[in-house]
């Protein structure tokens, strides 16, 4: 509002006494704080309900698909599931980018609008509007789940294909007799279907008794444990990036919140989707065995790590901020600060930045620059605010309202290109690593193993990672705003520290994932070597690796025949 801008101007100390930091205003009352806590409690409850509602899709949907899909189709179906799941965040970032262009109080806007633009650091977008749209979409998408059967017949079209092949090649089949090969094809399928059927429905008491034993057996599985740890590292990286990458782009490259969200939704998320689908197709088409899946995961993690190295150098140092990054003799344009503002009485908690374009120096408020007048330049689509008669600015101004633009804004697209390419390579490991778990644990433990995996991902990655990233980012703050006598929001960061610590944490988690995949590959090689030795001793000349997506399985009788 106009009176807000007027309050930021330089006012003589003889007319206005020096401000005091006493938090005596009404916004600091205990009643207001109680209201804020109630709102936070509502958001926590909403997040809990989101987590509960997602369980039927992941993890239970993963086991549901793998139980009833054919072995060779399961990786592709899971890859499609993961890819479609990633489409949600991509659409949400795009939707959020559009919503953030609207001011938060869209229902209480004054006539003629407000004199703020989306580039102003005080701008708050309509963050709440996307939740209403998404909640309605989720409610509609949940309706078809009521019509799914408890069990579905397992896919058998590939079995029929192999029967046709055998009909052409084997004369006993053409004579109408059951060949040993057909029987061997049919027996594993019937056995697999039987495992699904004979699983008893446990009561709650029985489940509680069985759960510790199954949990211990699952956690003692080395491949399962290492795959989960690698996914914990990857998920920690993704959680930190999903939470703070928009903020990082805003601060490092001086882009708006809506543009940052659109970049992530338009580049990073589609790249991750492509990586997930390609990973599932590679497992299906190439019939990758455990060792080759481990090698694929290792290569994806390695190249993702290498692409992180240039990110350490893509950015600019913090621009000059009067009274914060002031080092006498080092910053041109600030030699006379703060004496230049003379007899101005400036509010301590005010924040209305302006930028001196000639020296690229930013001031917290027009009062800090000694400005005494305000000029509004009207345009067709928006109005631009300028401040004049500024005693700290060479020539007196006018200077535009808002923070100074970054000198590295042109690097935002190359930065996002490398981040997106790294996301695609990291996502390439998603489906192969899941197949290592689904084919590595016992069939009756599969659902519980996937559930344990998702629980560990939530507890070890998605919960602590945003806290770790947020704490690291807070250590790079150079100026904290005060609210009610306490530290509130960070106004300015040290850009070099912010970049090194944010990208450094991403690099750390990628290194952990790479180390886990290297150990997985080493264990799989050792197991494969032991299996080859056993097979060579029992059946000379036979060395074969069981693929994760298998076609027809052969029985020992076939080899003897």
Automatic annotation (TrEMBL):
The keyword Membrane applies. Residues 334-394 form the Kazal-like domain. Keywords: Cell membrane, Disulfide bond, Ion transport, Membrane, Transmembrane, Transmembrane helix, Transport. Its main location: membrane. GO terms for cellular component: apical plasma membrane; basolateral plasma membrane. It is found in: Cell membrane. Pfam families: OATP. The chain crosses the membrane at residues 36-55, 76-104, 124-148, 223-245, 257-283, 295-315, 411-438, 459-482, 502-524. One of its GO terms (biological process) is sodium-independent organic anion transport. One of its GO terms (molecular function) is sodium-independent organic anion transmembrane transporter activity. It comes from the Eukaryota. InterPro entries: Kazal_dom, MFS_trans_sf, OATP. It is a multi-pass membrane protein. The keyword tRNA processing does not apply. Belongs to the organo anion transporter (TC 2.A.60) family. This is Solute carrier organic anion transporter family member. It comes from Panthera pardus (Leopard).
């Amino acid at each position: 509002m106009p009176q807000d801008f007027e309050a930021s101007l330089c006012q003589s100390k003889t007319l206005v006494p020096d401000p005091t930091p006493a938090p005596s205003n009404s916004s600091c009352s205990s009643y207001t704080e109680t209201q804020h806590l109630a709102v936070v409690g509502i958001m926590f409850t909403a997040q809990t309900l989101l987590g509960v509602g997602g369980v039927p899709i992941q993890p239970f949907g993963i086991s549901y698909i793998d139980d009833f899909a054919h072995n060779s189709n399961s990786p592709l179906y899971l890859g499609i599931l993961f890819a479609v799941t990633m489409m949600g965040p991509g659409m949400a970032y795009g939707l959020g980018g559009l919503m953030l262009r609207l001011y938060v109080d869209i229902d209480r806007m004054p006539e003629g609008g407000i004199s703020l633009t989306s580039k102003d650091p005080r701008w708050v977008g309509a963050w709440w509007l996307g939740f209403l749209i998404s909640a309605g979409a989720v409610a509609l998408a949940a309706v078809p789940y009521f019509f799914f059967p408890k069990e579905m017949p397992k896919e058998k079209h590939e079995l029929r294909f192999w029967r046709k092949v055998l009909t052409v090649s084997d004369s006993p089949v053409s004579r109408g007799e059951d060949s040993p090969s057909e029987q061997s094809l049919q027996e594993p399928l019937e056995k697999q279907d039987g495992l699904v059927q004979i699983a008893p429905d446990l009561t709650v008491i029985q489940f509680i008794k069985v759960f510790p034993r199954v949990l211990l057996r699952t956690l003692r599985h080395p491949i399962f444990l290492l795959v989960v740890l690698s996914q914990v590292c990857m998920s920690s990286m993704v959680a930190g990036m999903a939470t703070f990458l928009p903020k990082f782009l805003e601060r490092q490259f001086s882009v708006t919140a809506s543009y940052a969200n659109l970049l992530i939704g338009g580049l990073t998320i589609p790249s991750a989707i492509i990586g997930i689908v390609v990973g599932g197709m590679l497992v299906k088409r190439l019939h990758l065995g455990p060792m080759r899946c481990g090698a694929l995961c290792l290569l994806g993690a390695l190249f993702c790590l290498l692409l992180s190295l240039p990110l350490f150098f893509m950015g600019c140092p913090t621009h000059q901020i009067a009274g914060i990054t002031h080092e006498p003799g080092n910053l041109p344009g600030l030699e006379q600060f703060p004496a230049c503002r003379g007899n101005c009485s400036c509010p301590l908690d005010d924040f209305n930045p302006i930028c001196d374009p000639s020296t690229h120096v930013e001031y917290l408020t027009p009062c800090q620059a000694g400005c005494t007048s305000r000029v509004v330049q009207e345009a067709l689509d928006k109005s631009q605010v300028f401040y004049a008669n500024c005693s700290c600015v060479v020539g007196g101004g006018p200077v535009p309202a808002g923070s100074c633009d970054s000198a590295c804004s042109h690097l935002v697209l190359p930065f996002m290109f490398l981040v997106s390419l790294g996301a695609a390579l990291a996502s390439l490991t998603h489906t192969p690593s899941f197949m290592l778990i689904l084919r590595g644990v016992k069939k009756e433990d599969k659902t519980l193993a996937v559930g344990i995996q998702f629980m560990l991902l939530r507890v070890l990655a998605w919960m602590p990672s945003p806290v770790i990233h947020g704490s690291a980012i807070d250590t790079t703050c150079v100026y904290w705003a005060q609210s009610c006598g306490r530290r509130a929001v960070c106004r300015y960061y040290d850009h070099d520290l912010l970049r090194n610590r944010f990208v450094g944490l991403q690099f750390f988690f990628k290194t952990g994932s790479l180390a886990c995949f290297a150990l997985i590959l080493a264990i799989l090689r050792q197991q494969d070597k032991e299996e080859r030795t056993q097979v060579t001793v029992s059946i000379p000349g036979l060395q074969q690796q069981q693929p994760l997506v298998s076609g027809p399985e052969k029985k020992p009788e076939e080899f003897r025949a």
